[in-house]
Specification:
heterodimer; A: alpha/beta; Rossmann fold; 3 domains; 15% strand; globular; B: mainly alpha
Chain lengths: 402, 285
């Protein structure tokens, strides 16, 4: 086009150039969107109170993302993780949730990974209409009506307690239950749930104690439970010191009743605080099917495959236990399955996909979501394991009764 | 029942020792430091680290535990008390000691971790039920500490100067007593005694960053019950609180422990504000 012609059309050379660039960029836009990475927000308290467990979850999360990226990502797009450390502080968790959903343009938020931090973020993530994979076990976190885009990526607390009560009554054949819990909100809530599940079996606890987890000695609580005729103790606390004092007090009284309860009782940290390691023998904690070995001592194939693939870096995270890093894996696996089926990161489409997948077989366990239930994790994924039976590969043998 | 009583007395010993530590600092500064329980926490963690992690002999770990308490005591006087008390008659030390206590606790949680860790066995004794060292060590050391402090106040010049300052710091200064130095010294002594209580109770409490706050509160209740300034009162206040905690559980249930302990404090403050062994000072004007 000559200069004259350009002048007649009212366009200068610069205008023409700008127009051409605009057209070119407009044509290229769908291609860029196709190549834009999938952005996963991730809030985990890798420092502070729950650091050791969260660090293992964080490791599992990042390894799973790396594995997917190695295979070309999701929908042909790389995955980017935007991570924030909430340091077990709910106010930080809230700030980071706001930042991630509004400023970081994420496609999904995973975490926070404990209930106390997750609860105040629900409204924020739901308000921003982002898909939310929630790593807390408190029942109130999941409500498909109030928070339609929220999905739980581990079991609910009630499932743990239901399985623990079933184990005490049906497997151990114990009916005189003493409940000892700490005085945190979690401890009290768990006590009430145990009481409810016992009531459903026409049973009443013979003794209930709500104790300050920092109390230096719990001998009196144990003696009281003994006097009440308890034939099993169920403990609900995630304070290692408190749980160890309880196990010690029972052992020191030569009172060999089983103690059944929260997974904290399985931690090596508890074993280190025991006067004698044998006190750990008759103690059972809530574990998962994925950490129970078969007759040959082998872990489930998908768990072993994940551990083998990452054997060079897994070392420091084994102490937190298999469930910790597999929970990090579950968050990514669940989203990956939903996104792949949806074929589009639009949260409503991924939601619909997650609700329609018959079963998501994550190494952590099976998840089934429906439009009415976003809890997902299935009861059969939870089992009781003997605290003093941990195997070198991180697994537990099945519990043998009698 | 014996185990209930022994367990209660052991807790009482621990609370009584904390009350004694409050007394030592209060005598020279009229400050009830919020960091009192942290001396025990620092002493306990220091011992566990040196003996179990670095494999120092226990006696050397004990000496280092006392040294850490002395250093922490001195620092707390320098950082949270000296200037605050000199600059203001208001009770601003409440804030400064609380701030220091919080900072120390957080620092320990970052360095040591938030999970309690084992504390070394002090004597080669198989676990012996009610007569186990974890119960009687706090008890014996609490009594020894109270007796030692009484002797120190009565027989040593420094102890007498502490008493003089507690009665009238201005008069003591007018007579040439270096009150600043005495106050500093009292905090060093308090730090040592606090760390010793952490050592004595370590097998019960484990080496735990969260110990200080709980112990500080219970020690304060023991002090208020026994009467500020009285060593016998501190011991008796501690024993009453410990026994009450154990017996409440035994007879009523664990959920009433705190209510009854705090209820006792309120009742005593109403009926006998100076505590069981405290005295009301009348000042002539």
């Amino acid at each position: 086009m000559s200069q004259k012609a350009l002048r007649l059309t009212g366009l200068g050379r610069r205008g023409l150039l700008a127009g051409a660039t605009g057209i070119a960029s407009g044509l290229a836009m769908p291609a860029i969107a196709q190549n834009k990475p999938i952005r996963m927000g991730w809030i985990a308290a890798v420092s502070g109170m729950f650091a050791s467990n969260a660090q293992a979850q964080d490791w599992g999360f990042h390894q799973t993302v790396a594995d997917l990226n190695e295979k070309g990502g999701l929908l042909g797009r790389k995955i980017e993780v935007v991570m924030r450390d909430s340091a077990a502080d709910p106010s930080k968790a809230v700030s980071f949730a706001k930042e991630l959903v509004y400023n970081e343009n994420i496609d999904v938020l995973c975490g926070p990974i404990n209930s106390g931090e997750a609860l105040p973020t629900l409204g924020i993530v739901s308000g921003a209409k982002k898909l939310h994979l929630i790593g807390g076990s408190v029942e109130e976190l999941i409500d498909p009506v109030k928070y339609p885009l929220g999905f739980r990526n581990l079991n609910a607390n009630g499932q743990w307690i239901k399985v623990a009560v079933k184990f005490m009554v049906e497997d151990l054949k114990k009916t005189k239950v003493a409940i000892i819990n700490d005085n945190t909100g979690y401890g009290v809530l768990s006590r009430d749930k145990v009481t409810q599940f016992l009531a459903a079996r026409n049973l009443k606890p013979v003794y209930t104690a709500t104790v300050d987890p920092n109390k230096p000695d719990v001998t009196d609580e144990l003696l009281k439970a003994k006097d009440a005729g308890a034939d099993v103790i169920t403990e609900w606390s995630n304070a290692t010191g408190f749980v160890a004092r309880l196990v010690n007090a029972r052992g020191e009284q030569n009172w060999d009743v089983p103690i059944v309860g929260h997974p904290t009782i399985l931690q090596e940290q508890v074993a280190k605080l025991l006067t004698k390691r044998s006190y750990w023998d008759n103690a059972y904690g809530l574990g998962y099917r994925h950490e129970v070995v078969d007759a040959q001592g082998k872990l489930p194939d998908n768990v072993q495959a994940f551990m083998d693939k990452h054997k060079d870096t897994i070392g420091p995270y084994m102490a937190a236990g298999l469930p910790a890093f597999l929970q990090g894996n579950a968050a990514v696996t669940i989203y990956a399955e939903g996104l792949t089926k949806a074929g589009d990161p639009d949260p409503m489409k991924v939601k619909a996909a997650l609700e329609s997948i018959p079963v998501i077989k994550a190494p952590y366990g099976p998840f089934i979501y429906t439009p009415k239930d976003h809890n997902g994790f299935q009861d059969e994924g939870i089992v009781l394991v003997n605290a003093n039976a941990l195997l070198p590969n991180g697994g537990y043998p099945p519990v043998k009764i009698g | 029942m014996l185990l209930v009583i022994i367990s209660g007395l052991a807790l009482g010993g621990l609370y009584g020792m904390t009350a004694l530590v409050y007394n030592v600092m209060y005598s020279t500064s009229k400050v009830l430091s919020f960091g009192t329980g942290q001396f025990a926490m620092v002493g306990g963690i220091c011992t566990a680290w040196l003996v179990l992690d670095l494999h120092w002999p226990l006696w050397l770990g004990f000496v280092a535990c006392l040294a850490s308490g002395a250093a922490f005591g001195w620092l707390s006087e320098v950082i949270a008390v000296r200037r605050i008390v000199a600059a203001s008659d208001e009770h601003l030390w409440v804030l400064s000691t609380l701030a220091l206590s919080t900072m120390v606790q957080e620092a320990m949680s970052i360095w040591w971790g938030t999970d309690p860790t084992p504390f070394p066995r002090v004597l080669p004794q198989e676990f012996a039920g009610a007569f186990d060292q974890k119960f009687w060590l706090p008890l014996v050391l609490a009594v020894a500490m109270a007796v030692g402090l009484e002797q120190f106040y009565r027989r040593s010049m420094t102890g007498k100067l502490f008493i003089a300052m507690s009665e009238d710091a201005f008069a003591a200064r007018a007579r040439g007593v270096s009150t600043d130095r005495m106050r500093s010294l009292s905090y060093v002594l308090a730090g040592i005694l606090g760390a010793m209580s952490g050592f004595a109770g370590g097998q019960l409490t484990f080496a735990d960053f969260a110990l200080g706050t709980a112990l500080g509160l219970s020690g304060f209740i023991a002090l208020a019950v026994g009467g500020i300034g009285s060593s016998v009162g501190a011991l008796v206040g501690g024993a009453i609180l410990g026994m009450l905690t154990s017996l409440t559980t035994h007879y009523f249930g664990a959920q009433y422990q705190k209510t009854i302990a705090i209820g006792l404090l309120i009742l005593l403050l109403v009926v006998r504000p100076q505590g069981l062994f405290g005295t009301t000072r009348v000042r002539q004007v």
